[in-house]
Design a protein that fits this description.
5-stranded antiparallel beta sheet, two-stranded antiparallel ribbon, 240 residues, alpha+beta, 14% strand
């Protein structure tokens, strides 16, 4: 168990896109015999787009988002109000569901998503999200979920924080907006990568990396790369 979490945290810290995050969670979940998962982060504004990172069948996730099911999904509606994990099935005990919601469950079941264990997430910025582990049959899923409930909550929170940090689209550092490449080069520098390392990763020249780092440093009004990295770290911690 400790190895699963240590590896999970390492992979989260190294993740830079949705594919990385999906694979990190898939590996950790598989280590706990949980094979199907979905992380859904809701936008702060009603007009915003939700973020879904999942290994559900792509036709189902595309259908779900296209029909904006996150607006009527009883599981998500309950997650927005709950403060602890809960299990669910097509009946979703204690909740009356509409015909649209019933159809949602029927359609999900066609893809093997018949029951689940959902962990509500609300961060300090008021963003609501949910991590769900799903299955066709409840027995094995619930046994694992109940056994590792606290650990799964920790995983869900860590996943949410890392996704928000790295995939939010924000390139603000100490109130200064950097270009995508400046921000990217500074991120890799903060991970201890040299200019040549970063150049290999990004497929550009070392001198180009140095150029973007110099631009970032000048914009931030600092003299050294380390000072720029310190500002980046400070900006990240301020959004927690």
């Amino acid at each position: 168990m400790p190895l699963v979490f240590e590896t999970f945290l390492e992979r989260l810290s190294e993740s830079v896109d949705e594919t990385d995050f999906r694979e990190a969670l898939a590996s950790a979940a598989s280590g706990l015999d949980l094979l199907t998962f979905a992380y859904l982060s809701l936008p702060l504004q009603p007009s915003g787009e939700p973020r879904l990172i999942s290994n559900y069948p792509p036709p189902w996730t595309a259908h779900y988002l296209r029909n904006e099911y996150q607006r009527v999904d009883p599981v998500i509606m309950r997650a927005r109000l709950a403060d602890c994990p809960f299990r669910w099935g097509s009946d979703l005990r204690g909740v009356e569901i509409s015909q649209v919601q019933q159809r949602l469950f029927v359609e999900a079941a066609e893809f093997g998503i018949c029951c689940g264990w959902t962990i509500p997430i609300v961060d300090r910025r008021g963003r609501a999200a949910a991590m769900t582990f799903a299955a066709r049959e409840p027995s094995g899923l619930l046994r694992v979920a109940e056994r590792h409930e606290q650990a799964l909550q920790f995983m869900a929170t860590c996943f949410h924080v890392h996704v928000r940090r790295k995939l939010s689209g924000s390139r603000m550092v100490d109130g200064i907006l950097l270009t995508p490449r400046e921000y990217e080069c500074l991120q890799w520098a903060a991970r201890g990568k040299s200019a040549s390392d970063t150049a290999c990763i990004l497929g550009i020249r070392s001198r180009t990396v140095a150029f973007h780092l110099d631009n970032a440093r000048n914009k931030l009004g600092v003299r050294t790369k380390d000072q720029a990295i310190a500002l980046l770290a400070s900006s990240r911690s301020s959004i927690l």
